[in-house]
Each structure stands twice: as C-alpha cells, then as structure tokens.
Amino acid sequence: MNMYENYYALIMAGGGGTRLWPLSRKHRPKQILSLVDEDSMFKISVDRLAPLFPLERVFVVTGQNMVDDLKAQVPDLPDENFIIEPFGQDTGPAVGFGIMHIQERDPNAIVAVLTADHHIANPERFREVLKAAYEAASQDYIVTLGISPTFPATGFGYIERGELIGEMNGFEVYHSERFREKPNVETAIEFLARGCFSWNAGMFIWKAERALQEFKQQRPKTYQHLTAIQAAIGTPEYDRVLKNHWPHVEKLPVDIAVMENAHQVAVIPVDIGWSDIGSWSSLYDALCEDEEQHSNVHRTTNGEVFTVDSEGMLVITERTVVTLGTQNLVIVDTDDVVFVCDRTQAQNVRKIIRILQENGRDDLL
Questions:
Q1: How many domains does the chain have?
Q2: Cβ count near 154 (within 10 Å)
Q3: In sequence order, which residues have a C-beta less than 8 Å from that of residue 219 and are 6 or more positions away?
Q4: Domain final position from 226, 247, 275
Q5: Of the residues 163, 314, 321, 327, which has the maximum number of CB atoms within 10 A of its CB?
Q6: CA–CA gap between residue 318 and residue 301 (Å, rounded)
Q7: What Å distances lie between residue 38 and 32, 241, 296, 301, 306, CA to CA?
Q8: In this predicted model, which residue has the larger pLDDT, 292 or 55?
Q9: Segment 25-34, tens digit of pLDDT
Q10: Is residue 210 domain-shared with residue 353, that is, in the same domain?
C-alpha cells in the first residue's frame, strides 16, 4: 500500500489576475502566462506535484472559459479532473465544490488546496513540507502552510502560531492561534518583531470529510447547496442541479468562510521561496532572485531590450525597447497597450482597471 494513495491536490485556477495588467487579461489570466519560467504558472504548479503522486490525483477548479487553455498546458491531466464552476463565487465555495468532487472519488481523501499562479523557488522543500502537512492532516488537523516573512508586508494576511504540536517529516508543526487580516505597516512591523507570525499563502491541507464538516458547521446554507450538487454527481441531472444551486452559495473567501473559525488548525512555518506574483513589483523580485540588487530584468519574445544608464527596470515586450537614464520603472508592451509605471506604484494597477471601466474600455481588460 502506497502511503500517499489517499493524497490529492486541488488547484485553484480561476480568477483574472488584473494586478498584472496589461499582460494578464480576462481572456489571458496570469496562470496561463509564462512569467518566471518558460512554462506557464499553471503547468509549473502541476509539475511540481509529480514526484508526490500521479496526475490522476490532481484536480483543478476553474471556469468554463479557462478549461481549454488549461488543458492545452497539461494535456495529460484527465478531463474528468477539471471541476468547472458555472461562474466565480470566490474561493470559499470553490474549495467546497472541488473537495466534494474529490470525496466522491475517494471518501478517505486528504486534499491539499493549492493555487495555480504562485511562484515557489524551492519545489523540493515544498514537497517535503507537503508530506508533513498530509501527515498532520491524517491526524485530523486542518493544516496551513505559513510562509516565513522576509519583510513587513501589508498585502498578505498573517497566521499567529501557538504551542508546538510536534515534528513531522523534519518540520515543526504548531497550533494556530488565529488568522489576522492584512495589517497596516506599523502592525506588520510588530508581527515580525514578535517572531510568531507567518504569511498566509492560502494553502490548506485537510481530510475531505473534515473540510466539508467545517462547511456544514459554519456555512450551513452553502453546505446544503453543495450536498445537493454532490448528490447529483455522475447523474443526468448534474448540470441542472448545479445551475439551480450554485447561485445560492455564499460568495466568500475560504479564510472567512471556514478557516478563521475552524477548530484544531495547525500551521507549519516554512521558507520555500514563495511569492504570489501579485504585482509587477513581486514579479521583479522573483525574477531577480539570482541577480544583484537594482538589476535590470526583461523578458522578450521577438525584440531586444537595451537599458542604458538605467537600474531597477522591469521590461516585458514583444519588440525592441531602449531606456536611457531611468530607474525602477515597469514597462509592459503588448500588441494594444504600452504600460509604464514606477515600481513603487505597482500595487495600484487596479486604479487603471477602474478608470478603463469608467471610460467603457472593457475591450482592454
């Protein structure tokens, strides 16, 4: 008997990734883009799991508009492993929806909820900490991976850890005291000084049965609709039942839906070279991992990039771009938009999205 035979992965692959506009669009979200490597973020997310278990135990939650693009990235992933939402209802219902499909396949499943668009520089260590998380989850813990913070980030939620539970697969596993929302700078500095906080990367490992029990206790309305959908899986009524019930689930992120008030939650602090690639600034940092500070970074398909007397530049282009005497800029050149911003403003791309919407330019989104 393979010790991993009940281990599954559920990859969340919906969302639009507007913070990397204009490269990432509604029809071309960041999970199908090649940002840090030659392969797409989604393909890398699937491939890094391959040493743990076969593709048959990797499932993907996404929207109908994304299925063909995702299948093209990983053609060997079974068609039936794509779990299709009628439309987005945030990560809470998506997680419950995906887990109930896996539970139908294997009632004893232990599921790692992962993302399709995060960068992990150390995949070997990631796999090792996943083994520890699966082990803890097999003891009925809900496990979250806590990323060791490297700076006082205000763009991530935090997890406060309590007493040590024990060591599993070489990693220390702690009781989770509580989840904290994205802090201001002063609070983030305090979190780092206290030394018992980790970034919440949104990766959770739990028994399928335990996860759905949390939905039942905390979100009974959503659970009622999910169980109605689950009862129809594999029947001719599935599409009709899904269409009738999906609009009525509660649209909430999984942290708020179940994690913040769940019992027996464990956290494993770990450094795996993680980044959510949630902004042009974080992409620059990921691409600069092996470079000197203030390096110029560029990705191009056809042209060349010349950065003369320039530093800290991120240039993504399909044609030749030349800069002279510039510092810390993001330049993104696509077939219909040229975008330029200071890297310190990279978190504010949503302002551009709002302005384009207000001016009726949905064609650029």
A1: 2
A2: 14
A3: 92, 96, 250, 252, 257, 258
A4: 275
A5: 314
A6: 5
A7: 11, 40, 19, 11, 21
A8: 55
A9: 888 888 999 9
A10: no
Q: Positive or negative, the Cα torsion across 52, 54, 57, 59? A: positive
Domain that holds residue 79: 7-275
Same domain flag for 130 and 164: yes
Question: Is the bond into 22 cis (omega within 30 degrees of 0)?
Answer: yes
Q: What mean pLDDT is predicted for residues 66-91?
A: 94
Is 203 in contact with 145 (CB distance < 8 Å)? Answer: yes
Q: Provide the CATH number for the domain around residue 90.
A: 3.90.550.10
Could you tell me if 264 and 290 lie in one domain? no
**For residues 158 and 200, is the Cβ–Cβ distance under 8 A?**
yes
Confidence (pLDDT) at 293: 57
The answer to whether residue 1 sits within a structural domain is no
DSSP 312-341: S-EEEESS-EEEES-BSEEEEE-SS-EEEE
Is-contact 154 183, C-beta < 8 A? Answer: yes
Q: Is residue 2 part of a domain?
A: no
Mean pLDDT lowest for which of 119-123, 291-295, 346-350?
A: 291-295
DSSP secondary structure of 194-225: HT-EEEEEEEEEEEHHHHHHHHHHH-HHHHHH
Characterize the bridge pairing of strands 265-270 and 142-147.
parallel
**pTM exceeds 0.90, yes or no:** yes
Q: What is the pLDDT of residues 236-263, one digit of tens each?
A: 999 999 999 999 999 999 989 988 889 8
Write out the two tokens for 167.
């060591």
Q: What is the reported pLDDT for 1?
A: 43
- Rg of the chain over CA atoms, in angstroms? 21
Whether 310 has a pLDDT exceeding 50, the answer reads: yes
